[in-house]
Amino acid sequence: MNIFSQIIIAIVALLHTYFLWLEMFAWTTKAPKVFRNFPKDLFPKTKTLAANQGLYNGFLVAGLVWSLLVSDVTWSKNIAIFFLSCVLIAGLYGAYSVSKRIFYVQGIPALLGLATILFL
């Protein structure tokens, strides 16, 4: 896999590490500043739900990091394509169901990663 793809995958993994932290450990402290349109009184009530979402982001991070550590190029690409596709689908669904901003933050980096793997 080319270095540009690896850099984008690392960026996507870092973004999802941030989402994991925000949703699992900072939902009632920092998340209200990030998710300004979400009613403030719901943060404590949805803490467990957000933590579960954060855990899923952790699984995405694990898969993306795994794709960077696999030495076999074909396997590495296939793993990266799968996990970047998962991120892209999550970004598309988030844009549809919550906010278009989710696609820009989550979907576009995944799309760029997929494009560099498939076309470079």
Automatic annotation (TrEMBL):
Annotated TM spans: 6-28, 49-69, 75-95, 102-119
InterPro entries per the UniProt record, alphabetical: DUF1304
Record keywords: Membrane, Transmembrane, Transmembrane helix
Entry keyword annotation includes Membrane: yes
Keyword Transmembrane helix: yes
Residues spanning the signal sequence: none
Protein name: DUF1304 family protein
Native source species: Flavobacterium profundi
